Amino acid sequence: MNLLLIEPEELEDGSRRVRVGGRRRRHAEQILRAGPGASLRVGVVGGRIGTARVMALDAETLDLEVRLERDPPPKLAFQLVLALPRPPVFRRLLSTVSSLGIERLLVVGTARTEKSFWQSRVVEPGAIRERLLLGLEQAGDTILPEVELHRYFEPLVKDVLPACLVGRRGLLAHPGAGRPCPHGVADPVTCFVGPEGGLLDHEIEKLVGAGFLPVDLGERVLRVEPVIPMLVGRLAS
User: Which domains can be identified in the chain, with CATH numbers?
Assistant: First the structure.
């Protein structure tokens, strides 16, 4: 936890004092070794970043005096469209997406997406938010990425993705595309990452018809988890 996040409603009106408990209190005491008088980096979810002085610490709660001094780091002009992976992978990827500064995540079902994945707890709003917050804490950010779930591929391609490509470069990460992923793209990007089993030919055709350009990251076939940071690093550098 590089940033202790505070929910907006936890800040009392007209006051800089806040009381937190649970995981955040335990982390401050056990990992950060923070006692009365110590200073912590804090941020308000959806708001600014600053410092907090520990006023009191007991077995249940941590009392802080907060001073918010600066804006969070800007988001990348990067939208990710992701075929829903296996639940444990998706759970980890949510934190990765928020820590990287991706501004919007659209999750979709494809022909190779197991229908049972949509029944997992990891796609529930509360579980998604929990994992996104962990990524923000790691990166020192406070702004949650937008997340949308689209169970069916064709309505997404027809009704949603055209607007996602307005003023943006559309890239489809696809092994064997024969065209290397570009470096240091100055334009905003919408990038589609398919399932680990790959997209079917007709799905690729529909995405190409919608305006996505297939690209690859070399000769190796990679799992989804390393692909996303590789794409961000390559496109943003």
Answer: 4-70 (2.40.240.20), 76-236 (3.40.1280.10)
